[in-house]
Each structure stands twice: as structure tokens, then as C-alpha cells.
Amino acid sequence: MARTAPRHLTDDELATVDRYWRAANYLAVGQIYLTGNPLLTEPLRPEHVKPRLLGHWGTSPGLNLVYAHLNRVIRARDLDAIHITGPGHGGPATLACCWLDGSYSDVHPDIPRDGEGMRRLFRQFSFPGGVPSHVAPQTPGSIHEGGELGYSLSHAYGAAFDNPGLLVAAIVGDGEAETGPLATGWHGNKFLDPVHDGAVLPVLHLNGYKIANPAVLARLDDGELDHLLRGYGHEPRYVGGDDPAAVHDALAAALDDCLDRIAQIQRAARGGDSSGRPRWPMIVLRTPKGWTGPAEVDGKPVENTWRAHQVPLSRVRDNPEHLAQLEAWLRSYRPEELFDERGRPVAGLLGQVPHGDRRLGSNPHANGGRLLRALPVPDVRRYAVEVPEPGGTLHEPTKILGEVLRDVMDATADRRDFRLFGPDETASNRLSAVFRASGKNWQEHRLATDEDLSRDGRVVEMLSEHNCQGWLEGYLLTGRHGLFASYEAFIHIVTSMANQHAKWLQVSRELPWRMPVSSLNYLLTSHVWRQDHNGFSHQDPGFIDHIVNKDPATIRVYLPPDTNCLLAVAAETLDTRDLINVVAAGKQPTFDWLGIEDAVNHVERGVSVWDWAGTDTGREPQVVLAAAGDVPTMEIMAAASLLRAHLPDLAVRVVNVVDLMRLMPRESHPRGLSDASFDALFTTSAPVIFAYHGYPWLIHRLTYSRHNHGNLHVRGYKERGTTTTPFDMVVLNDMDRYRLVMDVIDRTPSLASRAIAVRQAMEEKRNKHRAYVREHGEDMPEVRDWSWANPLG
Amino acid sequence: MARTAPRHLTDDELATVDRYWRAANYLAVGQIYLTGNPLLTEPLRPEHVKPRLLGHWGTSPGLNLVYAHLNRVIRARDLDAIHITGPGHGGPATLACCWLDGSYSDVHPDIPRDGEGMRRLFRQFSFPGGVPSHVAPQTPGSIHEGGELGYSLSHAYGAAFDNPGLLVAAIVGDGEAETGPLATGWHGNKFLDPVHDGAVLPVLHLNGYKIANPAVLARLDDGELDHLLRGYGHEPRYVGGDDPAAVHDALAAALDDCLDRIAQIQRAARGGDSSGRPRWPMIVLRTPKGWTGPAEVDGKPVENTWRAHQVPLSRVRDNPEHLAQLEAWLRSYRPEELFDERGRPVAGLLGQVPHGDRRLGSNPHANGGRLLRALPVPDVRRYAVEVPEPGGTLHEPTKILGEVLRDVMDATADRRDFRLFGPDETASNRLSAVFRASGKNWQEHRLATDEDLSRDGRVVEMLSEHNCQGWLEGYLLTGRHGLFASYEAFIHIVTSMANQHAKWLQVSRELPWRMPVSSLNYLLTSHVWRQDHNGFSHQDPGFIDHIVNKDPATIRVYLPPDTNCLLAVAAETLDTRDLINVVAAGKQPTFDWLGIEDAVNHVERGVSVWDWAGTDTGREPQVVLAAAGDVPTMEIMAAASLLRAHLPDLAVRVVNVVDLMRLMPRESHPRGLSDASFDALFTTSAPVIFAYHGYPWLIHRLTYSRHNHGNLHVRGYKERGTTTTPFDMVVLNDMDRYRLVMDVIDRTPSLASRAIAVRQAMEEKRNKHRAYVREHGEDMPEVRDWSWANPLG
């Protein structure tokens, strides 16, 4: 390892960092290949090699390099730092590094830092019953799954928000950099307050190749790349090469330079300089893919090509040449200089490793539950709306919820551990009350016409659902609380991210050392039934269908029928742990059905009979009217009042479902109702006319094994929509009150003859509606003015 | 309108373009507000105003401005051009412009270009039974829905690919520009071949505000913005201001400059200059939001603020001041100078409007079915694999499919109307045969180690599912064909885009003037069961659940059990129209079950009894074993062979489902089986053990109304996974052959006593597997070596 000028590191520092890097590379290769002979104490034989070779070598040496150098600066500067590994496929690297620094053995005592531990570390990697090939919850120090790519920067910014002492080093792969979420992830720096937030240090790792192609950013000419990164708001530092000593020195210098600059920015801002959004430093690291691996295999170049992406030598067990190449490769790291005879790292190797919780594998921010404090959710009864009689008053549910959120914001003003994220819709979603407690975060210059913007705001709005989701995930996984409010239809944009977060929570729950984190709360509003004005593209309730495919222990879905129920749902969900809570609630004036105590009880039970709304008191119901969702509840209630007026003898039971998961069998979901409870609510033989917020077949999917499933008839959104009126939306989808009454008549044979006229009257109402709405462009007065308390309709 | 130097337009040109713009603005306001008195021939009264005011004014004047100026250059240069309206919320603008140029009345003859037509144009906007408030399929000249934001650039590049004579002007809103998909959409220029492709001209419209916030890009300082756009690979031209004459002149000059530069780039490239990827020109247009609208309303500034986003005057019917302001606003455009007494545009207004199909509202590329040619799909029998006996041979299905795609590529080499899109996975998905017919598109410099890259390649790979999807959509909607191959789990990334495309197709189908386009074909491979090596983050079969929520007439889902069936599915789907075809098929060696003729018949029927695999010949089955998907089929076949060996008297029927939608009732899906056909396959009383590729409850959701549903027992992926072996994946999810045999025993009471030993043997096999796989890291020999032809297991 020849030195070249300029020299930033002393010889000793250089030797230490290089030794760590070599050790980490050795351990990465070992994990991919070896099941025995971890220290190469004997010649490598086929039986030392795993039968299935799985893992990603290509990115690993770069990840190891960054880790080694982060160690040095963390220790030298006593930094509080975590790292986010965008190229999380390089699981062998991260695992190698945290085994080396001891943090791995701290949480996995069965894998000690010695020869036997090394053997187990190798063997368990990508092995049944072992650990995944990518960075995962099982990896200490990580808050970022390897696998799906694109979220490293949004996770990094989320972690840095409200963590003024924290440095988040985010390694961005050049593959990941091509994704949309990452491409807008750079703009996180537009929302980073140098006073109240920590710093994000992006390290763009250009190793040139993806699975089978060059990477786009790696092939840009230097000028264009520099434009791009400055355009993203950064001052880039460039480090590159394939001579380890030179790269070590340059990377160390660049890191120190960046950290000095970050300290300077923060010092200035915290000292009162408000001269505008800083241009944060970043590093571009250009090193060969699969660096230090085999240069050629079977006559084809491998190092510094896409062929280095996964397992460079693929036939080690049955190809002696591959076996010899592997042994030579492993020995090229000179393991005898790195580990003592008992397989422990030699003393000089660990000279730059930080201590205790400063280690990247042990920093409590990356196991956020360790730092989590209970969220001060006020007693929601204080915000309750008066309900003198059911259906006699109207409130905008999200508007009232906004008052609760305002007070949560207020109560966390000093702690700064609660944020509200949304894509430019907080006001549109009628949550504006929060602005009285916190502005909207904005680091750019402001104009006189702007409202509610502030540099330290904890409401974060950017027209990127990906950033909102990624920021919230990063915020939660580092031990804070938050809520993501979105138009229901467009939450689909982050379907895949929700997927990955659910998987993360599911796996984390099984790891005793991972402390529970605050739940990811979605408020889906401007929902399918109230996108009459925006039209078909804004109408989609299918996120619920997606989320209920995930681990039942992780997911909850709430459909509060009114304002007080939304308050009760907020009370139940906001300070929970390790869940994904999906709450779909309207922002438009909605009838109040329940007083707050009833609402709290209703939410606690999840499903209730609304006795006061039915006509089955003291007798078996002949038909059950069930609803889940605010608009479905209104239509069911209107149908119930029509039935009461037109068929007063019919014994109608009204059931409301606020906690959707209760419909699932108890064996399938921890909140599921027992069959006995389900039967008690829905009977075993009466027809059930069920109006549901979303796609109707979801209710069948949840209830197919129930005794009365054969009598269940579900109405919901069936992908019919356009720009029209609210009532026309329910008519288009056959979920309107008139149709529901017709459904009751059609499913209750005993009614047949005496109900013919009623059925015909309902059909005429629907026709009258169609004509009226097309002439007047608004709903019929009898629909607009209808209420349960005064049922004109 | 004062002129300022420099003057690019003559006075006459300026007057004409301004007159068009004023007329379009007038018509946009009219659509938002008026239901009568369209020409203001009498004083405005409340009853002339719509009861519900819906629409987006803020972006409309900018969209009108660009449209007016595009008209001028299209006519002056006889350009073949379409436009993509990123801020598609500005429906009133696009509708106004194509009503003005006559293209609207061409396809909607009930809305003529006269006073009565204007009244109807106004009235129908955002009105029940009318047209949506956003740009939509109903809007002539559009291939891009307004609503969800982010896809304007990917749609634009998709439209430009292989359309060397086409100019695609893409207006990007500053709201949209914050999204991830748009942020990576800029990189489309890295894949635009100046020889074989057309040009994309991005117009970044910075009007400063979103719904309620400033826009991020609009507040960057000039230098940073310029860096960003140059970093995206563009040479930006800047136009801005609020003086119409000056902006007209500057925009005209910038447009001419850009078009000259584009022509120069194309001329050079087509003349043989291959000096590298060109830096394409673009325009940054900075004009006030809601320009020319009310400056203030109720004492608050509106023009040039976020308050101009939707309806600036909201209480026109009951607030006389608002009414007066609206009238003044409308009259500010001087309609009497724009329209004659019969409401027709005055002659001078249309002086720059192109003729016939050159009009933006009439260009056939934006109604791509007009240009579509049948895809030359070869007879797939030519690629069939020999199947001497079922289950005796193995092939990699996608590898064989790759040969078909290669020949489709070849057959379209001159026509250039077929492309394959994928996120860096074409080789990984074993479709590499296509590279023999077309390289992977790459405009950047190449290195010696690169393989299969070419400037004119029609395989397009970028690590952005958003771009792949958007490019394919743009390509299809302009009348070409294509396929998107993706890892199954990560297709969730474009869930929301698939949503919008399904809605587009659904609505288009009802418009007689929209000609059918080629279907969007997904090949989902590297699927859930074969992501044992990549682990839990890569395991998710839920895209199917999502897509089946969409309009049944639009969607098809295929699960070919083997190579020949995949070929037959390709034959059935590749040249269809107006559908979304989802095909999930493996890339790993898969048993061949059917010869090609049987495969074609099987796919044609969608569901078949595999007589040869069952033991129910000549008798009623006691149990039905059903499978959908390649791995489920293998496990079902293995279970059938176990049953044949251990319980030879049991009458087992084996059913295979290749076309999932057949399971739906005929009334719910055009491909659904009648109840009689379903009963004939699945019986009305025998237990059905169903192994399904995805989440098991989807099968219940599809079949809940079938007679035998109560006896249906479904196994599938239930969100259990990690990095492990293939067989361990099915064991973890209880879909393995042993578990299926146990299921049969558990559900067939008549077997009870004589099957106890068999059940126990199966349980032991599972336990043996668990121990074996954890010891050896690979599957038991009896699983690895099992085949139907030689059932050792």
C-alpha cells in the first residue's frame, strides 16, 4: 500500500483504517461462501463452502470502506451518528462491520467475537434459520431494509428531524439513485432546519453498475454530475480511485472537511445566523464494484463490472479453479494479520472503533424504541362534539381531530417528538388547527403572501408521498411519533413502502433486543365517496385491501362513522406500538351519531349494535343493516329511516363496524371476533345488507368463514365514478339508501307482496335523482336536507 | 399591451397569439362558473352561475399560454406534435383550447363551435353527466390523465420513443416536479436516441404554488435551479414575467430557439454524428398562478398566490360583490372582440391554429389506436418444448418466452413498434434471448466491458419502475406495443400508476372516438416463491389482489403452470387491446406438464381438469386438488402422487387454473365461468384443496358465491418468509405437498381411520425437512429430485 500526497492521515491511522477494512472485506466474503474453516487455518476444501451461494459482493467493499471511515470520525469527534445503507443488498458488509465492532455479539450473544462466533456468523448468513442476505431488522444499527431501493435519503432525513445532535450518514447506491423516490429524496434538505434538526451526510457511491447494466449517474460526465448535485442543494466532495491508500486518505480528508462544514453550518444557524438554507456538503465516492475481489473469472472481467454484483465465483464446490481463486481471494486480506489464533480481531484493528453506544451497530437512535417516550395524547373527551340526538348535527371530523393534533403538537413543543406529514393537503384535509401550534416547515425564503410557514415547523408538506412516508418511517424508527394524512386514492403511491414497513415491524417484533417503536398512523381523508368533485382519478379505496394482506398482528383498519368516533380512534391509535393504523375518515360535514362516551365504547368494542336505530327491540331481527365507514353509515341510517317509515313492522337491526379487523376470525387476527360474538351481532340466518366504504368483496374476504356468510350482501365502491355530486357517487355504485331498501326487500322473501309498492317507490327515487342531478348539477333537496332527526327523505 | 424589446413576433403575430390566449382564458373561466349567458350578452345574474363551483383556475392561464404558442410553431413549421399536460387539473384550459381549434367538436359534435356549443361546453364541465374537471380520456389530444401527479415526463418520453418525426411538448407543473416519479422522469433523456426517436420539449411551469404552499422548485434561487436542470441533462431557456406582451414575445423566441436546436440535434445525429448524448433544450416558464384572474378577493391577495389554485371567487351566487368581480373578470378578456354574435371565434383568432390532424386536439398520436398495427406474434408452437411425459422434463419458462420476444423484436425491427421495459432485470429474468434482436438502449458512452448496449435498442432498462411503467404507457397510448417485466414484489411500486391506467382504459372504452390501444402486459417473474434467496423484502404476490379490484372488463390475470402454458398465454395476450394482462411466471427450471396443443387448449379454457393426473376416472371425485401458479401446481402434483401412492383408492380430481378470472362469476367478469361450469369442475360437495400462487383469501373473494365455496380450503402465501430454500418457502406457508396431503385427510372424514398413519408420515416429512434444511442449507434430496415421472418423494 503505497502512500501518495496529500496526506491527511498519519501512517498509523491509515494502517488502522485499512486493517479494519480488510477484515470487514474478509468477513463479507466469508459470509457469502464459508460454512467451515473460517480462519483458513487449513487449506480450503469444497466442504468448507456453502451448498447454495447467496449474497451480494459487489457493493460490500464500498460499504465496508465507509463504515471503517465513519468509525474513525465518530471516535475522533465523539459523534452521535447512525448510518443508512441504501445498497442494503450488501448485508455481508454491514454484518461484518458490526460483528467487528462488537455490537453484533451484544444483541446476538450466540455469535461471539471469536473464531466460533465467526464460523456461526458465516454459516447463518443467507442460511435457513439464519439471517437474511440483505440488511434487515436483524442487523444491529439499521433502520433501513435492504431490498426494495429508493428510500435511503428519506429515511435519513426522517431520522435527522428533531435530532439536533445526530449525524446521519446515508450511503446512496448508484442503482438506487435511479429510482423516483431517491431522486426526490435529495430535496429533503429543503426541510432540514440546521437549528433543530441534525445533519444528513449523503455519500453517493458510484461503483458503476447495477445487476446487469451501467448505472446512469455513474456515466454522467463530471460536469453534469456536479451540476446535478449542486442543483440538489449540495456542495459535493469527490473521492475516487482504486488504490486503497490513496482512497483512504482522500476519503478521510473529505469526511473531515464535510464534518467541519456541517459543524460550521450548525454553529452559525444556532448562533442566530438565518441567512437562508445552507448548502450542505456531501461526498461522491467512486470506487470499483467488487473492489479487491477477483479481477477475472473464467476469462471474463469481474472486478469493476456488473459481473461483480452478486457471487463472483459461482461454482466453488465443483470447480477446483474457482475454489483456488476463492482461497487466494480470502488470503489476499491476510487474515493472519487481522485475527488472533482464537479468531478475535487483533488489537490494532479496533483502534478507531467507537465505544459503547457510539458504535454504529449500537447507537440507540437506530433502535428507536430505546429512546421512545409515551406520546402526550390529551383526553379526547375534551374535544367531543355535543350530540343532543343522533343524526341531528353535523361536524367535520378531521377538523375536530385537528384540534387534538394541535394540542399534541403543543404538548411536544419542547420535546419535539411528534410530526405531521402530508403532501400539500393539511389545510385541504381540514387539519389547519395544527398551524396554531406549529408552522409548516420551510427553509427557503418566504414572501409576504405565505402563511403558516416556519423554519422550525413540525408539519412537513411536500408533494411527494414517497418523501412523506419515508420521513415518517425514519422519524418513527428513531423513536418518535407521527401521522401521515393523505388523500385516500393517492396513498397507493406508497403501497410498496407500506409493505416494507409492515415487514420490518413483523420481523422486529420477534427480536427481543429491538424495542417497540411508535405505530405508523395513516389518516386517509378526502376519501373515495367525497372525491365527487375531483373525479374518477381520485377515487380508490383499495389501500385497505392492500394493507390487510400484511401480517395481522401489525395492522389495524378503522372506519369511524362520525366525529366523536374519529376522536376515540385517535385516542386508541396515536400512542400504540409496532402497528400500522389505517384510519379512513371524512373531512366534509358528517352527521354526529354517538356522544363521546358511546363513541369510546363503540371503538373499544369495534362493532356494535345501534339499538336506538333499529326496530328489533325484544325480537329477532328479520334483517341486519350493517355499515362500515362514514358515508356508508349515513346511507344505512337513511335506509333504516325509510324502512321505519314504509315497513314499520319489519324487525331491522342496525350494526356499525368501526374496527374492520373485528370481522376477521379470532384465529386469523388478534382483534377478530369469536364466531359466537359475530353470530350474536349478525345472526346466523337473517339477511345482512352491508354498506362498506371500499371494494365490497373485501367484506366477503374477511367473513367468508362465518356462519351467516351466505346471507351477506355487500354494497360498496365498485369502480364507478366521475366528477359528479356526492349522492350521485353512491347511486352510481348502488350503495344509496334507496338501493339498500330495495336490497332489503329483495332479500326478505316474507316481505314480497306488501313491499312491491315500496320497492317501486325507491326505484322512482333513484330515477328522479338521476334526472334532477343532470338538470341542476346538485343533489335533490330531499337528499341534501335529509337527517335522521328529521327524515324528510 | 405594451411591446418591449427584443421583438421576436410581429405585431400581428403577437395580436393573434394573445387573442387566442384571451379567448382560452375566457372559456376556462366560463367552464368553471357559468351555466348560462356564455357570451355575456346580458348582465351576469346569479342564475347564470353553477350551483357547485368546481375546477382549477390557477394553472389554466399558463396552460393556455403554452397551447397558444404551440399552435403557432406547429403551424409555422408544420410540426407533428402532441402535448402532455402535467398539471392536468387545469382541465378547463385544455378543453377551452381544443374547443377553440375545433378538434373538440370533431369528436363531440353535440358541442359545436358556436354560442350554443359554448353554453354546453360551460355547462357540462364538472357537471353530472358531463365531463371531469381534469384532463381525462374525454379530452381530445390527451394521453395523460390529470389527477395523480408525476408521470408527465415518463409519458412524454414513452410517446417520443420510435416516433422520429414527433415533438412531445411536456408541461411540468412545479407541484408535480416535487414527486419522485417526475424527479427521475427527467432522466428519460438518457434513453432518447436522436436518430430513431422524436423529441421531448419539457416546459417547467413555475407558477409558484401548490394547493396551499409554495412550490419547492419555484423558490430555488436561479443558480441552483439552473444547476439542477443542467444536471438533468438540459439546456434551459428562461421565460418569465407578468406582462403578457413581453411574455408572449419571450416565449415565442424561446420556443423557436428550442425547436431550432432540436432540429439541429436531430439533423446532426441522423447525418451520422455520434458525438454522444445531446443536451436537449427546455423552457422554464415563470408566470403568476391564476394570472389575469382576480388580484384580490375579500381583501386577500389571490392572483400569484396559492389562493388562486382552484375557484378564486367561491360565493358568486349569494355574494353580489363576488358576482360583480366575476363579471368584471370575464369582461376583462373582451369577449366581444373574440367571438362573433353567434359565438364563433372571430377569424383573426384562429390565424395560428394548425389544420386537421396537426391540431393538438386531433393529432393521431394522441389517439394511438388510430395508428396501431397488429403485432406480428409468431406461432408459439414453434417454440414449444417437447413434453414426452408430464413432469418428466424441466424448462425455464421465461427463458423460452425470451425467444418469442426476440422474434417479435426481429419482426418489428423496421416498424419499431414493440419495446420491452424493465428495471435492470431483463437478464436476471432470463429473457436475454431478446438481446440477439435488440440491444439495451444506452445513449451514454460505453466501456469495453459493457454488453448488449446500443443507441437504438428497444429494450429499455432503468432502475425505476416508475419510468418503465410511464414509458410503456406513453408508448402504448401512442399506438405501439410492449411488455413490462418485473420482479413480482416490486411491481407494487407502480400500483398507483396501474390504477390510473386501468381507469383510463375503462373510460376510453366508452368513447367511440377513442380507438383501442394495445394492452399493457406485465410479466411478473422472480416471483414470491422463488425469492427464497433474496428474502422477505422480495416476497409479495399482492399486485394481483390490487389489479383485480379494477374494472373487470379491463383486467386479466394468468398463472401459467409451465413453459408451454406461458407460451400459450403470450399468444393469447400480446396482441390484445385495451386490457391489463398480468402474467406471473417463474424463471427457474419448472416441470413441463402439458404439450403445446394441450397448453393452448388449457389457456383457451382457462381452467381444466387434468384427467391424467387424477384418480377419479369414471367416478365422482372424493376430493379436488386445484392449483393456480407454477409452484402451487408442482406441490399439488406432488401431493397427488403422494395420495396415489399412499391412498390409492381415493378418487382425486386434479384441476388447474391458468386464467384466474375464470373463477369469478360470469355476471362479474366477462371471462367468468357460469355456475354450471364451475360446479362441473369443482363439484358441489367434494372438499377442494386449492394451492394458490398468492394470498389465499383472494381465491375466497373470487369464489364466495359458488355453490361449493363452503368446501374450499385454500393454501397460499401468508406473509411468512425469509432468506431460505425454495421448499422451505412452501413449508413456511403451509403450501407444501405434505401439508396438502394432510389437508386432504383432514377434510375427508371418510378417510379418518385408514389415513392416520399417512397423516403422521407427512407430518414427519415436514419435521425432517425442517431439520435437514437447517443443517444442510439446501432442500432434502427427495424434494430436490422429486418428479411426477419418478416420484421418489
UniProtKB/TrEMBL annotation, chains A, B:
Gene3D superfamilies tied to this protein: 3.40.50.920, 3.40.50.970
Domain called Xylulose 5-phosphate/Fructose 6-phosphate phosphoketolase N-terminal: residue spans: 9-370
SUPFAM superfamilies according to UniProt: Thiamin diphosphate-binding fold (THDP-binding)
Keyword Lyase: yes
Signal peptide range in chain numbering: none
Alphabetical list of HAMAP family matching this protein: Phosphoketolase
Full protein name: Probable phosphoketolase
Taxon lineage: Bacteria, Bacillati, Actinomycetota, Actinomycetes, Kitasatosporales
